[in-house]
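Write out the bound-state structure for calcium ion.
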Amino acid sequence: MSRILIAEDEARIAAFLEKGLRAQGFVTTSVSNGLAACEHARTGAFDLLILDIGLPVLDGFTVLRQLREARVSTPVIILTARDSVADAVAGLGGGADDYIRKPFAFEELLARVRLRLRTGPAPEATVLRAGELALDLRTRRIHVGEHPVELSAREFALAEVFLRNPDQVLTRAQLLSQVWGFDYDPGSNVVDVYVRYLRRKLGADRIETVRGAGYRLRVG
Ligand code: CA
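---
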């Protein structure tokens, strides 16, 4: 199981990352300043560091420099504000492996995380199953019984969240944050629209509406 250290001082973003990554089976630890990030990363107990640049005590660049000087080779993905491409480039020069600009969709971050961990410890199961559905994370294909079904990237991401949480009620807010990112307008009806697409492709009864609560993938 991969262990991820999150260094982010904005509580909302840290919580969003922790929740999302834990739902994907990662073990996470979160720190809110650069000094704590350094101390934790130096223990060597982490497989990946997600590092915000604007951190109190020591900024992300300093953390990165100190870690690389101390020969800590843990992969680092830096988080940077949308308009700070120069920051990102400097981060890569300073030994970061990748960067992602805020705001970001969770799906996008997850793809980067998986890429960085690819050579790490044993990967998780690549096929998720629930009832007749089988979703292959490697080939990005889904089958209903024997039949392959074509899904768009967004539909696939939504289906993945359902298959990771079979038989559980998922609120619109949960689905929004997992698939569209924390900055998405909570008043948007995009979840309902995509649930409708999935029902059309996977079978109308497959996803149940739980009134006033959200949606549930039926497995029976
Ligand atoms: Ca910050």
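---
The helical segments are 11-23, 34-42, 60-69, 85-93, 106-117, 153-164, 172-180, 190-202.
The mean pLDDT is 88.
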